[in-house]
Amino acid sequence: MRLFLAKTWIVLSFLLLSVNIAPAQQLNCFLGSSPQWESGWCDLRPSMNFSSGERLRIVVGGTARQILVRLLPQGGDPNSPAGIVGSSRRIPSNRTLEIVLESNYSRISQISVHGGSNPFNIAPLGQDNGPATIISIERLTPQRR
Questions:
Q1: Which of 19, 39, 101, 105 matches a 20 to 30 Å C-alpha distance to 141?
Q2: H or E segment and range at residue 136
Q3: How many angstroms separate the CA atoms of 133 and 34, rounded?
Q4: Is pLDDT of 18 > 70?
Q5: Three-class SS of 35-79
Q6: Per-residue model confidence (pLDDT) at position 28
Q7: CATH number at residue 63
Q8: Mind listing the pLDDT tens digit for each residue in 53-88?
């Protein structure tokens, strides 16, 4: 019995050590929101660079069921859709959205989420789609393959 338990422990230890766990970095930023624009943001100071393959884990507040995510470059106009990442995204029931960045983003000064019925007049999300805010954002390293 002891030999069986020892072998089991060795196998489990090996499996646990070989699992690829991506460390998370909580982004320190100044959170803000606008009821008028039904959006929330995270102002980064200093600005940051993000690489293709990196992931962002965003905990979304508000009642939006779908959102746009934007990585606004330094000097970009926050009233424009510049820096929208992909297309609209459905918010999971746990309100935690994971995004894989498919390109490099340089000198990003703000990460924002946009709810409402039609943010920037480019994404009809539905008349009953509510506002979105940011509760927290984590940066996850790319997964190794």
A1: 39
A2: strand 132-140
A3: 8
A4: no
A5: CCCCEEEEEEEEEEEECCCCEEEEEEEECCCEEEEEEEECCCCCC
A6: 87
A7: 2.60.120
A8: 999 999 999 999 999 999 999 999 999 999 999 999
